[in-house]
Amino acid sequence: MSYPSDILIVGAGFSGAVVAHELSVNLENPPKITVIDQRNHIGGNCHTERDSKTDVMIHRYGPHIFHTDNEGTWNYVNSFVKFRPFVNRVKAKYQNQIYSLPVNLHTINQLFGQSLNPEEAKRFIDLQADRTIDEPSNFEEQALKFLGEKLYKAFFFGYTKKQWGCDPKELPASILKRLPIRFNYDDNYYSDPYQGIPEEGYTEIVRKMLDHPNVNVQLGVKFHPENSNQKYDHVFYSGPIDEYFGYRFGKLGYRTVYFEREDGEGDFQGNAVINYCDESVPWTRIHEHKHFMPWEKNDKTIWFKEFSKETEDSDIPYYPKRLISDMEKFQKYQEVLEKQSGVTFLGRLATYRYMDMHHVIQEAREVASKFIYDFAR
Ligand code: UDP
Prior knowledge:
single chain, alpha/beta, Rossmann fold, 2 domains, 7-stranded mixed sheet, 5-stranded parallel sheet, 13 helices, globular, binds uridine-5'-diphosphate
């Protein structure tokens, strides 16, 4: 392939913005880079904006807390904007009581009405655990093996049914592996050493990444592979893989979420996130956005009830379901993808994976480095 002079990037979320930034800064002769996004804003699902009524910074597509164990990724995001320390201490509401999350010694003592110390709690939970399960093959078995029935039913069964819209037995064990169980009072939702929220929101990072004379951002523009692939030396695509191939093997399953906004004065719930674990409560959680920026003071407040449902044509895909039937279709898409040249697929939608922001950024940096290296040789 000749040296690229004209590049198209589809998607102005973190994947696209990181690649645009890396290529414009690191390629010896920076190419012309066009970034398109079908939405009318940059930042993808990480988009944040100030609410015009209250001035609260809103995470329009749901809460985003940056966390990583990779020092390089942490230094990278901090090179664009200032991050403020933020620890996500999620609470859970179940049967009219508030509990600590992720499941920790406090949760165990609360739920079982005990005052166990760490060693006692380990032995106690060990007795609750289902010893007949050797290799958990699904979400439910993973939970029963490591938490036992009571904790599972309280905090995971109803919530997971609501979030994923299916029986937890149908879900992979890996979804639960995202959450730890702790035998101390550490209620930090994440275990990563680097955590924070950008002082001016996530969109500001993306804006800075895209701020280069060679980068041209076009919003409200839909991508059509048939018109675009010949026009550019290379395309980086971060949209849905099934859409790229005209859904020829069928649609991949996603859950989507939607929000109901409520406004008020003062402090509605005293915390950024409260999960509602009862199956009978229709929403999965409530987030009150001013608590994501405790360094700002605001007399007004906004909170969002979050609901989960199947993705329909007009909905934004959020969580890849990755059921067996989905993975069979995805395999077929991957086979055609391997035969493509001049296009790189990256990010959550194009690779059909459940990815956090730090994974997306790390992967996009690797993709860009490889591309640059190929031309540096
Ligand atoms: N989960 C749950 N109860 C909770 C929180 C999480 O059952 O209170 C389950 C749910 O299935 C979720 C998974 O654990 O998809 C992983 O949780 P995480 O907080 O990482 O969820 P995310 O919102 O990122 O999917």
